[in-house]
Amino acid sequence: MILVTGANGNLGSAILTALRTRGSTATGGSRTPGEGTRRLDFDDPAGLDLTGVSTLVLVSAGYAEDDRVIARHAAVLAAAARDGVGHVVYTSLTTAGDHLAFAAAHRATERLLRTGALPWTILRNGLYAELFGALLSWSGDGLESPFGDGALAAVARADLADAAATVAADPVPHRGRTLDLVGPPVTADRVAARLGVPHRGIGLDEYRRRLLDETPGLLPFQPPMLASIATGVRHGFLAGTTPDLADLLGRPARDPLAVAAATAAAARPTVAAS
Ligand SMILES: NC(=O)c1ccc[n+]([C@@H]2O[C@H](COP(=O)([O-])OP(=O)(O)OC[C@H]3O[C@@H](n4cnc5c(N)ncnc54)[C@H](OP(=O)(O)O)[C@@H]3O)[C@@H](O)[C@H]2O)c1
Fold first, then answer.
1. Which of 89, 136, 171, 178 sits at a 20 to 30 Å CA gap from 26?
2. Which residues pair with 27 in a beta bridge?
3. How far is the CA of 234 from the centre of ligand 1 (A)?
4. d(CA 230, ligand 1 centre) in Å
5. Which residues does ligand 1 sit against, CB inside 6 Å?
6. How far is the CA of 195 from the centre of ligand 1 (A)?
7. Residue spans of alpha helices (H) in the chain
8. Ligand 1 atom nearest to CA at 37
9. Disordered: where is this region (predicted)?
10. pLDDT digit string (tens) for 9-41?
11. pTM for the full model?
């Protein structure tokens, strides 16, 4: 049986859908399980049960400080080894993401896999096109961003889900492989042009100030995380692409520009009728 963690999250649920669409038997693991989904909370190591799982798709459980994320992943990998899981597919971070503030948790998890006894495949996921679109903010009738004219090799989340499902459905040929799953590069200017609006750049000082002063609800680790994405994109560290995604999917990647533009468009404030 294939088990996909983070089953109620965006990526985990899409991987499950992709697996079921191709006829694979798969179940989900979640902190809040529903019918047919196993309870799986990495913050509760004593409660982790992976018996009967042949292939585990470990969707990274980020959104916390590195020590917490690494402890989560270590706990689930220990449970996988104890319970006889046959193969782990881990959704990591693109190689170019070594510049990003949250890379350490991914690389530490990869190290656990490489030094452990379980067969593994590491999917180094690029930043989502949806994320890129969401990080463009509306100001007046245009978009603002800290990205300058830097490009991001963005990838539609649905493609990453299809890629993970492809590997999980038949993991043996992918044993010991590290795949860098990024798409064609997009820029903020091109997203704005697609929407027919201007794009105005802001500096990194101003961006961080807005994160700290004007973005309620951010957790302490998030401003440095987002600022690292901004400088990484702005200065061209995340623009390079690889053939791994299209090779794995056997088709071209979905157009990340269209996905980013749709995400940005959906966030456009509506103008009140006068
Ligand atoms: N490549 C990118 O651009 C990008 C962007 C953002 C995040 N990420 C990383 O990719 C992961 C998946 O992205 P996503 O879009 O699916 O994020 P998401 O919609 O926020 O889903 C993340 C899921 O992680 C699971 N999770 C969190 N804490 C957990 C814990 N203690 N134990 C077990 N599961 C836990 C939860 O699943 P349940 O609700 O089912 O418990 C949660 O819904 C994120 O968690 C993050 O590490 C990547």
1. 178
2. 3
3. 25
4. 21
5. 5-12, 30-32, 40-43, 59-63, 72, 125, 127-128, 131
6. 29
7. 10-21, 66-82, 103-115, 129-134, 157-169, 188-195, 204-214, 222-234, 244-249, 256-266
8. 40
9. 22-41
10. 999 999 999 999 999 999 999 999 998 899 999
11. 0.97
